[in-house]
Description:
The chain is mostly beta strands. It folds into four domains: 11-198, no CATH class; 200-217 and 346-422, no CATH class; 222-345, Jelly Rolls (Sandwich), CATH 2.60.120; 451-749, Porin, CATH 2.40.160. It is 11% helix and 47% strand. The protein contains nine helices and 43 strands. The strands form eight sheets. Strands 30-31-32-33-34-35-36-37-38-39-40-41-42-43 form a 14-stranded antiparallel barrel. Strands 12, 14, 24, 26, 27 and 29 form a six-stranded antiparallel sheet that branches. A hairpin with a 2-residue loop joins strand 31 (475-488) and strand 32.
Amino acid sequence: xxxxxxxxxxxxxxxxxxxxxxxxxxxxxxxxxxxxxxxxxxxxxxxxxxxxxxxxxxxxxxxxxxxxxxxxxxxxxxxxxxxxxxxxxxxxxxxxxxxxxxxxxxxxxxxxxxxxxxxxxxxxxxxxxxxxxxxxxxxxxxxxxxxxxxxxxxxxxxxxxxxxxxxxxxxxxxxxxxxxxxxxxxxxxxxxxxxxxxxxxxxxxxxxxxxxxxxxxxxxxxxxxxxxxxxxxxxxxxxxxxxxxxxxxxxxxxxxxxxxxxxxxxxxxxxxxxxxxxxxxxxxxxxxxxxxxxxxxxxxxxxxxxxxxxxxxxxxxxxxxxxxxxxxxxxxxxxxxxxxxxxxxxxxxxxxxxxxxxxxxxxxxxxxxxxxxxxxxxxxxxxxxxxxxxxxxxxxxxxxxxxxxxxxxxxxxxxxxxxxxxxxxxxxxxxxxxxxxxxxxxxxxxxxxxxxxxxxxxxxxxxxxxxxxxxxxxxxxxxxxxxxxxxxxxxxxxxxxxxxxxxxxxxxxxxxxxxxxxxxxxxxxxxxxxxxxxxxxxxxxxxxxxxxxxxxxxxxxxxxxxxxxxxxxxxxxxxxxxxxxxxxxxxxxxxxxxxxxxxxxxxxxxxxxxxxxxxxxxxxxxxxxxxxxxxxxxxxxxxxxxxxxxxxxxxxxxxxxxxxxxxxxxxxxxxxxxxxxxxxxxxxxxxxxxxxxxxxxxxxxxxxxxxxxxxxxxxxxxxxxxxxxxxxxxxxxxxxxxxxxxxxxxxxxxx
Length: 751
């Protein structure tokens, strides 16, 4: 099947039934099309479905063509109808058998059993095989909770109307109920189809009345609301002749013109907003039988024979009316060598009643009647159901009135809005694959906002948990602090301060500053870090300072959507105001303030290379090689190789890592050693309020060289703006592929 923008396939359903078996509970959505007909006549096809003991039907509208065609070959591409959709709930092991008397094209979708079905889209209903009147009276109308039952009623009525098996009295009863209580709005398409099978016929069985009177209905107040609307919105509201009323029949008696040559002239005015030309069609009952007359232009002439003129009358009926359109008829006679218009009076017959002789109509059977009456100079109407018998109008109700009866309409012409639009073929694009380049610097969006983020931090560490039978003490550390982040364009700033409590040393206080920069045109990045910690010594009554400065420069780039590379080089400098003698003499000085090895290796550089492979959006694997120099900047102190696997699952991030380090021997370390660490981590993001959220993380580290392990628990809470990660540095996010803002940055800068 070829449409204007895509090509699809479908299952052809012909004489052989098609059976579907469900291996698990599901809802099957069936979309069906048929070959469209172009004859401007109403026609439906029906899809029959058998589900265990249940039989269902679904209409396919053959008379409404779509822009989709069926490609048989290059020369044979018939148009298809619009698609009708039905939903069928199946249990595990249940079968659905589909059949049709005509060729249908089916498409299927398997939906979960909890799928919410929209009533307006479901056209499948249960086939009623018993008496129609019992279905009619047991179906509740006007309630939104009984849409399925109302759909079954309309579908069965439509099927019987299409097969001409619905009797006149059943159609009358159905019309009476539908006029009193309109079905649900989602069933408007089916309701409109049923209404198109009826029309108003003039009622002639009056038992009594005081007299008759001709009323000129061309006056504005005498027109109905629909007629006034059509005149205001049509292209020409002054057509000559008599205006044909939609869904009404006009009878002409031309017997007085038998001696002349006579013709009918039809005039048509299209809707003002309808650009395409609409061709109206009429049904004309004449002496030779019924004639279908189509207007190819806004004016059309039909010649009449002597038999037509001598017949009791001509009956005209407009078959395909639409709002904002007008159609009129003129009678012309050939006199004195030219065609001359015969004046047709615009007055129409109304019956007059008074108290002595009220208007009385005799109904031989139940009927739906429309009462037209004149009240205070304006024409009004009302319709309703009336049982068989005498119907009398009180004089105070209407002194001038007439009746119309709602009847089954034998014509099969549909309501036409405009000629069908011919489909416009769009050439299918050829997909061309271009391999991504190694660099991505085309800025497709700007992220230059100045964003500030504030968060509180609580971090608990328990270090030195030895796997030993001896009761060795552990170090407990609690950090309470605040972080302030700010981002401006490609610059990230972070300022943080912490107060630390320790069970083995005096409290300490730290202030740290960090800066990150990422080039928006090249692969380069840089960062600077400054860590400061103060602690008071009770023994010396002095406040000591320990600081560390680092500066890093490197490159970060993507090879493709799976591989990312990064290298960096980072000089560092370590300073402490504590001497070795002071540290040995005062046990309350924290290890974080003084480190023997850093004391003898106060400066140097670190270098590293990291590669990351991300096969899925929620899983990534990283490997990293780093080296650290001695204070002479030429020899190596430590070389490390590590790997980390991270997995995202339902809001949680899990990580596992392994690190191996080779520590070289030097003047302060007599032996070279291999040292191994394993780590396990978990963290999750939680919402605290509408504008605040935070992280909870737990990490476990095993030191196989010292045979101990440590545990760290951390909680952060802050004002996460939008996604919460705009102010975070480019390499600071734990799982960057799942963060919206950072994902856009990857797309923007290719990192």
